Amino acid sequence: MIPPGHTVITEWLTRKGFTAFAFQEETWQHIAQGESGLVNAPTGFGKTFSVFLGAVIQYINQHPADYQKPRKNGLQLLWISPLRALAKDIGRAMEEALHELQIPWQVGVRNGDTEMSERQKQKRNMPEVLIITPESMHLLLAQKGYPDVFKSLRVIAVDEWHELLGSKRGVQVELALSRVVHCKKALNSTPLSLWGISATIGNLEQAKEVLMRPLGVAGIIVRARLDKPIHIESILPDEIEKYPWAGHLGIKLAEKVIPIIEQSKTTLIFINTRGMSERWYQTLLTIAPQLAGAIALHHGSIEHQLRIWVEDALHAETLKAVVCTASLDLGVDFRPVDTVIQVGSPKGVARFLQRAGRSGHRPGEVSHIYFLPTHSLELVEAAALKRAIKEEMVESREPMILCFDVLVQYLCTLAIGEGFTAAQAYAEIKNTYCYAEINDSEWEQVLAHIVHGGNALQQYDDYKKVEIENGLYRIKNRRVAMRHRMHIGTIVSDAMLKVKFMSGGYIGVIEEYFISRLEPGDSFTLAGRNLQLVGIKDMTVIVKKSTASKSIVPAWNGGRLPLSANLGLVLRETFNLAHSRKAKEPELTVLHPLFRLQEKLSHVPKSNELLIEHIETKDGYHLFVYPFEGRLVHEAMAALLAYRISRILPITFSIAMNDYGFELLSDQPIPLDDSNAPELFTTDNLIHDIQRSANAGEMAKRKFRDVAVIGGLIFQGYPGEQKKARHLQSSASLLYKVFSEYDPYNILLRQAHQEVLDQQMEEARLRAALHRIQQSNIVITVPVRLTPFCFPIKVDSLREDMSSEQLEDRVRRMQQQLEKEK
Amino acid sequence: MFLPVPHHIHNNTFWLSPERCIYWEQGQAIIVSDLHLGKTGHFRKAGIAVPQSVFQHDLQRLFHLIQHHRPQQLIIVGDLFHSKENKEMELFIRWRESLAQVNFTLVKGNHDILPAQWYTQAGIVTHAEEYSTGGFCFTHDPAGCSATSEGVYTFSGHIHPGIRLNGLGKQSLQFPCYYFGETYAILPAFSRFTGLAGIQPTRQDSVFAIVNQSVIPIQ
């Protein structure tokens, strides 16, 4: 017999002229049977409806006769979504469907924007569907009586699981799930079905395993198997610069973008950094003034309302083009978008696919994506991407393990709400993937940290946070509890300041670091506007409109993603191909002059070779190495190599790198040759050596800031208490210093060091890269001058010290010089 | 003990210690600034688990310095305490009792907000703005130093001075330092639980950086 729920839904869809996709039908069936799993589907193919309608079908099956009758159901479906901005859209779509089906369910949204009154209302009367962020989910766990909320719960959906996995927000989800599952077990209530929704990633199976772990089931993967053809076209420069450098070429090609925009309905132009997106927006307006009003700018530092406006305008088809950053990577589809332009390297296959998928959503349509290189060598990347996509080499997202900062925060959260017992909490967290391997001693340290504040002078200490009462861990101090609630979350941003007009209009946010280098009267660009700095008052940057013709574009920290390992691999092979002249791809054939020069001066490495160049210039002695492993691995490898060479002979270096290779520069000849190269790249004593290399400490200091904020050591203050809070503020670098000197085994400090190894240095990848190098032929050349390969690295190292105009002049002179020497 | 470095002003000798305090030979006094005692306790009371041993260690260092130099007087140019009273102050009181032979003189800083009788009980003589002795003046904030009378040299603190030293290959590090201008000096913060504020000295000024366990003249 076909269950009634399925019939109701199918009939409703048929009336609307729709047919369900096979993967949706499959998911519905699994949910109806109370099973759990992971739906793998691209955006724009009704992944929301696969799980949502599944929950509805399940409800109809429970109440076949009177499912349209209002009743107090309590929470039925909990929808965890990483994106606040999406909640409204998803909620609206659900309400529409429910309305048409005449099912009297309420849909509620709960996130940082939700009004207090609305939360109170939800507390009294939970809606049937609650759309919530991981942070708000934890806030819910800080409430008294929260277990009752989950009594009636039937389905949990975790949307965009591929985005959450691999981040500390994902860990928050794991912890929240483990709590809900145990609450339900304790209440002996309705069975729970748990569903993740994920785009394609390399480790889908593991993604499912991590999600299912708290529930203790294996789970099923439902794949959408919707092949969407992708058409990739590179925008080729008319003339290939033999000395390429990053950032420069892109803007020069802007004119070639105009016809593409004009021929398309709506175009998204993805730029890698917020700073460059500001420049692109300005440039497009300058060369195509007719587009004024029809193009917009969208990035993470632009005021929220303005971003919403841009998104709405995209839906309404009133914009021709939007210049954006990763800020538009996620989220609902913008149907009118039919063309996507990627400026510069997308750094990974998955990201490129996701962006390509932003165009042509309807089944059967082709996704069009243009690749616009920011320097000519990036064209090789375009060719590599085509191959990687053909071979489906999508990156994995590694789940995080043993994040003690998140655990400290979570336990304090529980201590505010119902409190917890040590044995129960320990058992629960060990049921998550993240903390499965935690040992007793680490657990004891975490508890000691929140109860006693580490080692203290017993008699002279008034540390107060978590107190134990009859075995129950509780936070009773109201101020401590309030402060903790304001700090729940794992997204740590750089110190940001609001930017406002003197007259009051709010423009966006900007990093404190950037603004601190400006003087009043200086002009800078934000949200596409030229602004003049008036002054800084109460954590707000006051500006007025600038009439200056030149302004500084802020360089936001972060956002510099490294090249993925997958793309690096294909890239090495593509270089091989490019030089062999067998290549047919237009991207590679145009590069022939560049490769010829590279070969003439030095060498074009094959995929089983590591190229090292010794070059002497008036700046000193350069060593360029090209592992093609992404900037993070290069940074670590450069520091490692510098440390190992300095043991042979006392020598100091400055280091520079990009995604293709790195540079060591010194004022004396660098002792690296065929005889010692293999041992300089060995994996022996790797950990020991990188921890001693110069910047491991610096990196740990940077990481410690995030850990300290999440772990509750840094108090960021909150509105209304600014003055009082000042006595409790300390910088992360000061805390790092104090902990390193006085409490070096502190669990949060140790985590910062571990994160440097795992993430900053990508130790696993570094080790793999060194292994590969061990098995490669090391080719050492001594070119008479800078080569096409090393030029972009050289320019990157100049960039830090110079304003962009000085830089452009200097690079131009260098290029002319080198061309002349030919 | 680590070697202090002498610095002469108006025929007086001031010994600059790498432990962030000055021994004034003619005045038989130790001059310190910005101890911020009780800061760790203040944080910990609010549930922020900074290591308390910083505080303990700061007191021990000062004790050793007093034993070493055997001064008659300890002159604190402000910010002896970080905030309101907490349990760490009890340890301070006991510590103070063991040093009964030394006079404690505090020129109040912006952080010194304890009630007057507290200082009296702790055996600390306080001065609101400045304190003068032996031809020298002591105050907390160097910004107020220009107002002092002609020919009087002033010692101050407050800003936790640091000096940036640039090395090869774009390396740059900041160290706590002693600053001696024409009319006034700024002491480094004594507490290890304090940050640094970079200073830009002019050519005539003298600056001594504290690098690990030594005092190094920079200019």
From TrEMBL, chain A:
It comes from the Bacteria. CDD domains: SF2_C_LHR. Residues 252-401 form the Helicase C-terminal domain. Keywords: ATP-binding, DNA damage, DNA repair, DNA-binding, Helicase, Hydrolase, Isomerase, Ligase, Nucleotide-binding. SMART domains: DEXDc, HELICc. GO terms for molecular function: ATP binding; ATP hydrolysis activity; DNA binding; helicase activity; ligase activity. One of its GO terms (biological process) is DNA repair. Residues 28-219 form the Helicase ATP-binding domain. Pfam families: DEAD, DEAD_assoc, Helicase_C, WHD_Lhr. InterPro entries: ATP-dep_Helicase, DEAD/DEAH_box_helicase_dom, DEXH_lig_assoc, Helicase_ATP-bd, Helicase_C-like, Lhr-like, Lhr-like_DEAD/DEAH_assoc, Lhr_WH_dom. PANTHER family: ATP-DEPENDENT HELICASE LHR-RELATED-RELATED, LARGE ATP-DEPENDENT HELICASE-RELATED PROTEIN. Belongs to the Lhr helicase family. Lhr-Core subfamily. This is DNA ligase-associated DEXH box helicase. The lineage of its organism: Bacteria, Pseudomonadati, Bacteroidota, Chitinophagia, Chitinophagales.
TrEMBL record, chain B:
GO terms for molecular function: helicase activity; hydrolase activity. Residues 30-173 form the Calcineurin-like phosphoesterase domain. Keywords: ATP-binding, Helicase, Hydrolase, Nucleotide-binding. The keyword ATP-binding applies. It comes from the Bacteria. It holds the Pfam family Metallophos. InterPro entries: Calcineurin-like_PHP, Metallo-depent_PP-like, PdeM-like, Pesterase_MJ0037-like. Transmembrane segments: none annotated. This is DEAD/DEAH box helicase. The lineage of its organism: Bacteria, Pseudomonadati, Bacteroidota, Chitinophagia, Chitinophagales.
